[in-house]
Amino acid sequence: MSADPPDAPHLPRPAVIEAYGNGGFRFDTMSHRGSLLCLPDGVWAWPITRAEDIDRHALARVFKGSTDIDTLLIGTGTDVWPVPPELRAALRRVNIGVDTMLTGPAIRTYNIMLGERRRVAAALIAVP
Question: pTM for this structure?
Fold first, then answer.
């Protein structure tokens, strides 16, 4: 059995997050340990473990897919984290609004917006 290439999504489409905790997530009968990027083109592993490490580089896939995203929700784990002004401005330049909240509320908001067929993405830091 061959492994997926490192740049392949776990799932090549968006999916509702069914459960989270214990350092990972469940979605579409799959499970993943670690953080996730949930984008219109798929669900991707995301190596971020602390909100302080979120920058343009960490969100490169979001910027690349900006024409399909209106809102980015950032689940910051268990700590509150304000988006740095320069990152907020960079997202605004590509017409993406951003909101940060703890990971649990971010998942709930993402699932609702996805169900409403809104153009939403989520960057979710895994929680213990």
Answer: 0.92
